[in-house]
Design brief:
Shape: globular
Oligomer: single chain
Strand order of the largest sheet: 1-2
Number of helices: 13
Largest sheet: 2 strands, antiparallel
Strand content: under 5%
Distance between the termini: 16 Å
Radius of gyration: 24 Å
Length: 319
């Protein structure tokens, strides 16, 4: 196991190294740079001033030289300053990451706690009213656009009923109840749009497992339906579902742009979008690198879960 983990860590570091250069190069190829934005904001800036600033910040160097300078500084813990926020990049990124963790982990936990039992029961009661109801709810959740659902929730709970705030985040030092009030609408939106696909994946995997020989053997030995489903069936059905969760892990921290924009939630998705649109090189690069790291971490956790769910899977074994 230790050898496998060491190998995966080395592979992940190599992937991050390659991705850092690719992301840096793509950002560098974008039209315009921070100096162009400064020129548009200051009509008195001369071409000589602009050339001096580009030389001062190293923007006149080739991409590979700029990347090397950034990489050397990053190894020492210096990721540069954010042009948009005029702060060190880490100080801007960490609060956004904390906000995303609050929102997206809550939505993911709620989705799993509802989707797994619903998918299992739908598979066990195949072609029943329960199965059709779960499928209808799942297809509705998959089909409803996030922006429309978010706007409808705001209209109902914030405008009409006045129970919940329409957007924003709780102030520092707010009580847990106040924080949950601000979390409610964006978390419900993310949960409703992800729970359907999760329930469908669990149902499909459970249907395949219930046809296996060891399930029939357990039933022939007199095992109760509860034991057959939740102990023998579910553990094996979760293996493909874990793969889906691993793919969602990185997306959740970088791809919730629509929900974060609708509810004015200062998370990672909105931060990445603002950094790219504002040509904030340092902030965009580190945020995208963090998203890549989360994807790699999700894949590693998925592999570890495979070995835990199925003892036949031995990590690091060679044929």
């Amino acid at each position: 196991m230790s050898g496998y983990l060491f190998s995966r860590i080395i592979q992940s570091l190599l992937v991050l190294l390659v991705m850092s250069f690719v992301i840096y190069s793509l950002i560098g190829l974008m039209p315009g740079d921070p100096i162009d934005l400064m020129i548009s904001a200051d009509p008195y800036m001369t071409p000589a001033d602009a050339a001096h600033l580009r030389s001062l910040y190293g923007l006149d160097l080739p991409v590979y030289e700029r990347y090397w300078n950034w990489f050397v500084a990053a190894l020492g813990g210096d990721f540069g300053y954010s042009r948009l926020y005029n702060q060190p990049v880490a100080q801007v990124l960490l609060p956004a990451l904390a906000n995303s963790i609050q929102l997206l982990v809550l939505a993911l936990l709620i989705s799993i706690s509802v989707a797994v039992p619903a998918g299992v029961l739908a598979a066990y009661k195949q072609r029943s009213i329960l199965d059709y109801s779960v499928n209808l709810f799942a297809f509705a959740g998959i089909s409803i656009p996030q922006f429309w659902l978010g706007l409808m929730l705001i209209m109902l709970f914030a405008v009409v009923l006045g129970w919940l705030p329409a957007g924003g985040i709780a102030s520092d030092g707010a009580s847990i109840g106040e924080q949950l009030r601000y979390l409610a609408l964006p978390a419900i939106t993310l949960t409703m749009t992800s729970i359907g696909s999760h329930a469908r994946y669990v149902r499909s995997a459970m249907l395949e497992v219930l046809r296996q020989d060891y399930i029939r053997t357990a039933r022939a030995k007199g095992a109760s339906a509860t034991r057959v489903i939740w102990r023998h069936g579910l553990k094996n059905a979760l293996i493909p579902f874990v793969t889906v969760l691993a793919l969602d892990f990185g997306f959740l921290f970088s791809g919730a742009l629509i929900v974060e924009t609708i509810f004015a939630w200062p998370g990672m998705g909105r931060l990445i979008f603002d950094a790219i649109m504002g040509n904030d090189y340092n902030l965009a690069l580190l945020a995208l690198m963090l998203a890549t790291t989360l994807v790699l971490t999700g894949n590693l956790l998925a592999d570890l879960c495979y070995a835990w769910l199925d003892p036949r899977i031995k990590l690091g074994d060679r044929p």
